[in-house]
Amino acid sequence: QVQLVESGGGLVQPGGSLRLSCVGSGFSMDLYSMGWFRQAPGKEREGVSCFSTSDMTTYYADSVKGRFTMSRDNEKNAVYLQMNNLKTEDTAVYFCATDPLCDPSVRVLVFGSWGQGTQVTVSS
Question: What residues contact residue 119 under an 8 Å CB cut-off, 6+ apart?
């Protein structure tokens, strides 16, 4: 059974940093593209970043380029999202997912499983 567990969310001031983790079980993460997504209150879910196993490339939404970095540790079956210079508009529930359609558009099209999400709140 595929399971994804996110952690690392919390309350941070604007300009601060957080590192989100997503640990998978029941599958080998190195075989799949992985993605980070977020959903703010009253808004649609949007793509943040994804790593494509097709071209071994990490893509980012324009809104987070230069501030967020996605990484993975296949030995730990985990992916991470380092978020720096956080802004109030980054406030959302952040989800990881397996097997997204990963391309420069970072669209929300997931063929695999979703985690339960972790809340990130950026506020002074």
Answer: 9, 10, 93, 94
Average pLDDT, 10 consecutive residues per value, the chain (124 residues): 96 98 95 97 97 96 98 96 98 97 95 97 97
The one-letter amino acid code at 115 reads G
CA dihedral 15, 66, 97, 75 (to 10 degrees): -100
CA distance 28 to 103: 21
Separation CA 76–CA 90 (nearest Å): 27
Residue 19 zone, left/alpha/beta (φ > 0; ψ -120 to 50; rest): beta
- What is the rounded distance in angstroms from the CA atom of residue 61 to the CA atom of residue 85? 15
Residue written as tokens 């997503």?
A: 22
DSSP 12-51: E-TT--EEEEEEEESS-GGGS-EEEEEE-TTS--EEEEEE
